[in-house]
Specification:
Largest sheet: none
Helix content: 40-55%
Strand content: under 5%
Structural class: mainly alpha
Radius of gyration: 23 Å
Distance between the termini: 56 Å
Number of helices: 4
Shape: rod-shaped
Order of helices and strands: HHHH
Length: 91
């Protein structure tokens, strides 16, 4: 029940008040710093480099590419690597 729906002098019940306060809550989106994003990519590449058949030395080059193409969020790592031109090895 929205606060605007209440008439002058009418009060909310305890359950309605809790529901109203809960509806106002919006969790803050945590922004990762550049160092945190870099560490996330380091971990991702350590786990995934064998899937791409590439060496560890390619990591700094890939990271620069991901930053330049705005694929430096953990959700976008795979899209950025495919944009770079690497494909996963099929088995």
């Amino acid at each position: 029940m929205a606060k605007k729906d209440l008439k002058e002098g009418q009060e909310m019940t305890l359950e309605e008040a809790k529901a109203y306060r809960a509806s106002l809550y919006k969790p803050a989106v945590k922004k990762l710093s550049d160092a945190e994003k870099r560490e996330q990519f380091r971990i991702f590449w350590a786990q995934s480099r064998k899937k791409y058949g590439r060496a560890r030395e390619l990591e700094p080059i890939l990271w620069m590419h991901l930053k330049d193409t705005k694929h430096d969020d953990p959700e976008k790592f795979e899209a950025g690597i495919s944009h770079f031109g690497l494909k996963k090895l099929g088995k």
